[in-house]
């Protein structure tokens, strides 16, 4: 784990604790104390100690440079600030990790390696994660070439049960980039958008893509699982992905261009039409007990007989929330925009059946942040995060990089 990865994860844990402290000082203080004790117990790891010291230093410097001031309208826009802070923070982290990986990629090809490979990039090789999980379940083999791929894959799937697709709207850097493009350029289309029927057809592509990836993972014969995990196709999967993304062919370049253009017309275009993680998390989220629920006793459509559609207008997925009591759509991101836009407090909540235990945006973000940052940290501390593949072996396989396909074959 690189020092920047450690900083990102520690910052996420600290942000979760700060949210918890703002909700309950006693509980927040207790959680902070427990976290500090665990940190001291695990402080034998020098990298985490350095990262923790750096994190505290940056925090103190920021406190000194930027006084504790509140914007005059912070309370009115606290929801938007909370979400944008989370998205901006993770987007910046994604950019820096991409730069770090680009430098690593350059140096490993020049045989002058001194930058640590950020293991978190393995989140972008889901096929390797799927094959490794199959080998683990069917043959008891633990893959150590890309263990972080398995960790992040399972983390995202389980997070969909806990927080639905909140990862997509609160954390994902690609979703944030897509939304930023939409905000910047939507006015140039003068209100034009993708027709509803075309939009419904395009939304199905991500499920077809997910089905295809699943077919690739489960079509490999059982006796070829181990040979594949020991092959250059798996060991170099991350470098092959980077190679194809930074040096795309004609089809790849056209696809990227199409996604950029679609993102200026449709909010979250990549998430809606392509992302296999989003498709999988959407399906898993259907099993989550927490859903957006409409209280008819408070809704203006029922109490005042008004044709209020503010919830649907605020929803980035255009879900007709005002017409249903429980939102079971797999495209629901649990972004809380509908509840924020609702003029009647409590009419829309993310809650259990019968509107029990409503979850606020703060609690949702707290749960998500703590889960997606603490799991990788614990995986690292238990020795199941960093790749065990020697860098010398990866360097020796560099000449084979051009022959490794973007999507593997089982020949």
From TrEMBL:
Localization (cell): Cell membrane
InterPro entries linked: 4Fe4S_Fe-S-bd (IPR017896), 4Fe4S_Fe_S_CS (IPR017900), NosR_regulator (IPR052378)
Identification of the protein by name: 4Fe-4S binding protein
Chief localisation class: membrane
Organism per entry: Ferrimonas aestuarii
Ranges for domain 4Fe-4S ferredoxin-type: 323-353
TM region(s), chain numbering: 46-65, 85-103, 144-161, 205-222, 242-262, 363-385
Top-level taxon: Bacteria
Single Gene Ontology MF annotation: iron-sulfur cluster binding
Keywords, in A-Z order: Cell membrane, Iron, Iron-sulfur, Membrane, Metal-binding, Transmembrane, Transmembrane helix
GO CC terms: plasma membrane
């Amino acid at each position: 784990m690189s020092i920047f990865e450690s900083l990102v994860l520690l910052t996420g844990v600290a942000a979760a604790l700060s949210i918890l402290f703002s909700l309950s000082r006693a509980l927040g203080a207790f959680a902070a104390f427990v976290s500090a004790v665990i940190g001291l117990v695990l402080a034998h790891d020098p990298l985490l100690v350095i990262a923790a010291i750096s994190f505290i230093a940056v925090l103190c410097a920021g406190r000194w440079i930027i006084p504790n001031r509140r914007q005059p309208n912070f309370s009115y826009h606290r929801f938007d600030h909370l979400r944008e802070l989370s998205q901006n923070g993770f987007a910046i982290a994604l950019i820096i990790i991409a730069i770090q990986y680009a430098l690593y990629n350059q140096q490993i090809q020049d045989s002058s390696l001194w930058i640590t490979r950020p293991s978190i990039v393995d989140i972008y090789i889901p096929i390797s994660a799927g094959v490794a999980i199959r080998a683990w379940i069917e043959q008891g083999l633990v893959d150590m070439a890309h263990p972080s791929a398995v960790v992040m894959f399972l983390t995202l799937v389980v997070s969909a049960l806990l927080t639905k697709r909140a990862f997509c709207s609160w954390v994902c850097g690609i979703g944030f980039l897509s939304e930023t493009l939409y905000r910047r350029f939507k006015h140039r289309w003068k209100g034009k958008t993708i027709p509803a029927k075309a939009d419904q057809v395009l939304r199905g592509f991500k499920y077809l893509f997910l089905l295809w990836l699943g077919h690739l993972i489960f079509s490999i014969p059982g006796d070829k699982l181990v040979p594949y995990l020991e092959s250059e196709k798996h060991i170099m999967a991350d470098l092959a992905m980077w190679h194809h993304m930074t040096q795309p062919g004609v089809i790849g370049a056209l696809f990227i261009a199409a996604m950029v253009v679609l993102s200026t017309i449709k909010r979250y275009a990549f998430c809606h039409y392509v992302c296999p993680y989003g498709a999988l998390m959407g399906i898993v989220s259907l099993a989550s007990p927490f859903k957006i629920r409409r209280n008819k006793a408070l809704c203006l459509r029922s109490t005042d007989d008004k044709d209020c559609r503010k919830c649907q207008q605020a929803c980035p997925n255009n879900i007709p929330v005002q017409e249903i009591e429980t939102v079971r759509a797999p495209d629901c991101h649990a972004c809380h925009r509908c509840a924020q836009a609702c003029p009647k407090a409590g009419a829309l909540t993310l809650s259990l059946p019968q509107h029990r235990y409503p979850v606020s945006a703060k609690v949702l973000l707290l749960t998500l942040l703590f889960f997606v940052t603490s799991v990788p940290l614990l995986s690292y501390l238990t020795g199941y995060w960093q790749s065990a593949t020697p860098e010398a072996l990866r360097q020796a396989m560099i000449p084979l990089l051009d022959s490794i396909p973007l999507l593997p074959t089982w020949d």
